[in-house]
Amino acid sequence: MSSETEVKGCAGCGRSAKWQQDFPIEWDGDHYVTRREMVKFLTLGSLLLASANWITVVASKLLHPGSKAERYIGMDSDLDRNGSILFRYPTEQDPCIAIRTLEGKIVAYSQVCTHLSCAVVYDRSEGGLFCPCHHGLFNLQGQPVAGPPTRPLPRITVQQRGDQLYATGME
Ligand code: FES
């Protein structure tokens, strides 16, 4: 230890302070160690963050194994022309709505308004999906046609098997 940096721990006995004995690093060496430690810290930190991301992805796949799988949503006979049914897809926390149009076609969308996430409902008189929060309106193609929403509703693909309807994906 250089005499410039040495701080006397005990003026009477001439011994160095306890912290100097525990960390016997000179000031020049201290900067070097700090830089090296910083590189180690950043490298390890990056590895930990990357690992945490992968763990999150794997955990979400394990916890929600069927999140993108198909899901039964109801009977075809329950869905009248110009009527609607509600269901959840891809998880129980995701409300959706399926509508049979006047022409008999089935369309389905997320029920979450793309403005501020209120639930849209089928408005027979308007022939579209109405959001009561700020009077937003989406047509049956899921496109916003009135009010503040500017983005379309996420579309749910529906497959019919016999009399049963299944949600099979989200676009
Ligand atoms: S939340 Fe739907 S219009 Fe605002």
Account of the protein in words:
The protein is an alpha+beta fold and 171 residues long. It is 25% helix and 29% strand. Strands 1-10-9-4-3-2 form a 6-stranded antiparallel sheet, with no helix packed on it. The protein is elongated, with a radius of gyration of 32 Å. Bound molecules: FE2/S2 (inorganic) cluster (FES). Residues 113, 115-116, 118, 131, 133-134, 136, 147-149 line the site of FE2/S2 (inorganic) cluster.
Number of strands: 10
Residue runs with pLDDT of under 50 for 5 or more positions:
1-7
**What quaternary form is this?**
single chain
Strand content: 25-35%
Strand arrangement within the widest β-sheet reads 1-10-9-4-3-2
- Main structural class: alpha+beta
Approximate shape? elongated
Order of helices and strands: HHEEEEEEEEEE
Summed over residues and divided by their number, the pLDDT gives a mean of 86
Quick tags:
171 residues; alpha+beta; 6-stranded antiparallel β-sheet; 4-stranded antiparallel β-sheet; 2 helices; 10 strands; 29% strand; elongated
Short overview:
The protein is α+β, with helices and mostly antiparallel strands and 171 residues long. The chain has helices at residues 18-22, 27-63; strands at residues 71-75, 83-88, 95-100, 106-110, 121-123, 128-131, 136-138, 144-146, 155-161, 164-170.
